[in-house]
Each structure stands twice: as C-alpha cells, then as structure tokens.
Amino acid sequence: MSDPTAYRPPLVLRALAAVSTAFGIAAAFMILAAVLITCHMIFVRSVLGQSTIWQTEAVIYLVIGATLLGLSYVQKLRGHVGVDLLPGLLPVGARRVLAVIVMALTIAMAAAMLWYGWEMFHMSWERNWKSESVWKFPLWITYLTVPLGFGLYLIQLLADLWLAAFAPPEALPVPHPERSPD
C-alpha cells in the first residue's frame, strides 16, 4: 500500500511521464521489429539463397529511430550513463544545485540538437530526399526522429529540472535505486 502523504508531481509532469513511457514502448517495438527483420534477412540470404533489398536499411533506420525516440523514457528512468559518486557524497542542497547545473547544460545540448534536427528534417521533406539504395526510402521519416526524439528528451529534462529545483528532498531522483541501502 502506498503512503498517502507521499509527494505527487503536478499533473503535467505525470502526463509527460506517460508520454515518455509510450515512446519508450514504441522504441521497444522498433527494436523488436529490427530483430525480426534481421532474422528474415538471414533466412532469405542463407536458406533461400536470395539477395535482400530493404532489410539492412530498415534495420538501421529502426535502431536509430528507437534510440532517439527512447531518449525521454531512459531519462525518466534515470538510465543514462552518469557519474554519481560526487552527488552521492553531497548534502541535499548541494546535490540540488549540481543537478540544476547539469540539467541546464544538458537542456542546452538537447535544444541545439532539436534545432538542427528540425532543419535537417525540413530540408529532406522540402527536397523529397530518398535513400540512394534500390529501396529509395523517404529520408524525412528517419530524419523526423531527430527533432521528435530530442524534443521529447528536452521536455523530460525540463520536467526533471523542475523536480530538482522545486520538489521536496524525498522526491529527488535516487541514482541507481537498486543499490540503495534498504
């Protein structure tokens, strides 16, 4: 049973967490599709002795898309690689300041990727770029995952920044909760 006095983030942050989870699930299905397509490609080449046209390219695009669209979900889970020795040694106030500084820098990087990713997507859309393979896949679909993924990541970072700055100390994220001394 949960503690009724436990901190609950504002509705907008809970909604964002649900969106991040939905994109995490979509990313997982993209990885599953890439695995299945790889198995199909191996079967067609090895068993049937035929060449493949679209499989390698599809797998590459799916894995790239899954990586980018899964950014916000991994951020929500605090799954990105990070050095947590220093924050673990700091008192709560100093840990809060450090978290705000690190997130502000990460937000700046994500905003730059969003900006340039949008330019790349828009250019490929306007010019109707296609891959140079026989498949001629429209590149705007793949390029759309850059601004979409980094946009969601940026919004999740802003939510985490709000939590780091204003949430009560017990609501602050615990790095690697599986190693907590409970």
TrEMBL record:
One of its GO terms (cellular component) is plasma membrane. It holds the Pfam family DctQ. GO terms for biological process: C4-dicarboxylate transport. The chain crosses the membrane at residues 12-37, 58-77, 97-118, 139-159. Residues 35-164 form the Tripartite ATP-independent periplasmic transporters DctQ component domain. One of its GO terms (molecular function) is transmembrane transporter activity. Its main location: membrane. It is found in: Cell inner membrane. The keyword S-adenosyl-L-methionine does not apply. Part of the tripartite ATP-independent periplasmic (TRAP) transport system. The complex comprises the extracytoplasmic solute receptor protein and the two transmembrane proteins. This is TRAP transporter small permease protein. It comes from Primorskyibacter flagellatus.
